[in-house]
Amino acid sequence: MPDSGGTQASMRAAERILGRPLTLVTTPTPLKGRNLNIVVQDSSCQRYFIKRLRDGEGSAGRMSILEDAQGRLSRIPLPTPGLIGIDPAQRLAVYEFSGGEPLPLVLKSGQDSDLLWADFGSVLGKLHSGGTEGLPATPREVPRTGMDILKEFSFEAFWSLSAAEVELWRILQKAAADGRVDLDAHEVPAEPVLIHYDLRLDQALCVHDRVMLLDWEEMRSGDRARDLGMFFGDILSETVYGVLDNLDESDLAPDEAVGALMISAGRRASRAIGLVVDGYLTEFTSSRRVAELGHLKLLGRRVAHYMFRHLLERVGSRSAISTQLTGIDRGIVAIALEIAQQLPAAANAFGFDFQARVQNA
Questions:
Q1: 89 and 119, same structural domain?
Q2: Which of 96, 131, 164 is the last residue before a domain boundary?
Q3: How far is CA 340 from CA 177, 277, 337, in A?
Q4: The pTM of the whole model exceeds 0.85
Q5: Element (H, E) at 222
Q6: How many domains does the structure of the chain reveal?
Q7: Which domain holds residue 37?
Q8: CATH for 62
Q9: Is 296:344 a contact under the CB 8 Å cutoff?
Q10: Phi-psi category of 265—alpha, beta or left, where left has phi over 0 and alpha has psi -120 to 50?
Q11: What are the pLDDT digits (tens) for 132-166?
């Protein structure tokens, strides 16, 4: 449950916005994230979603973006819960409640459909065609390479690492020594577009095989490859980590069992990614805006950069609280390093070879 103090203060602020008393709704699905997220209802059982930004630093700018997003997204138009009101002093926003299923749970239950993934690609293509006027811009720099990530494991910080982080550090050190980590540092991002910037599976709801995107406080002008690569990495990691549900003791599971399950999960993830790409490209080909994608081969390489980064960050976040890397963790790291080594082959294997898919359409 959320902290009681923050919850009660958020409910009082929401009552002032809505002009009616509210009661807390206990939801079957935890509302995770760095912010305080709760569902409430009024006396007529009408539900509302409340988001309260926890951290004060930069919160004023993020609240401004949340307010701006409503009108900007409605002009595209893009499916997202309607904003009812905000309280900048409380860093709080009240939204219409959308009763969809969080995408990670849809994926975990095996209820994800071809239509759902294609629709996600279409929604993302529409987002990237939106205007960026007045939004903060992401610095025009290349994605962090494997060596950049490796350097963050400094000697001074080494003594505070968990056992699993030390193991990850050793794997990356060896990969760096073998020349398997550093990516081409001369990739140049395309012209900036409207991006979500923090696009993960848990930032979306599934509503009758349709996608509704959430959490716009980081929205900005930036490289479309960040949204695509981060989301593709999340599809792969969430699908592969779902393998853990099929293993009683993942740390001790035979390598053969882990490998067989990961192959199955990888194929499922690749299919989903390919469907997202097809839906994404349809938004451009249908309106004859293919030229806006620029150099499609280069886009695939940039997407691979971000996918590589996201996979390592997922393993890193898990290893911070673990005594050792699981077989699944090591498999994810191996996949990330192969992506870094073979960008064109990786784009083809995971279904985001944009150039080939446009030519074959």
A1: no
A2: 96
A3: 14, 20, 5
A4: yes
A5: strand 220-222
A6: 2
A7: 4-96
A8: 3.30.200.20
A9: no
A10: alpha
A11: 998 888 765 554 555 565 566 555 666 677 888 88
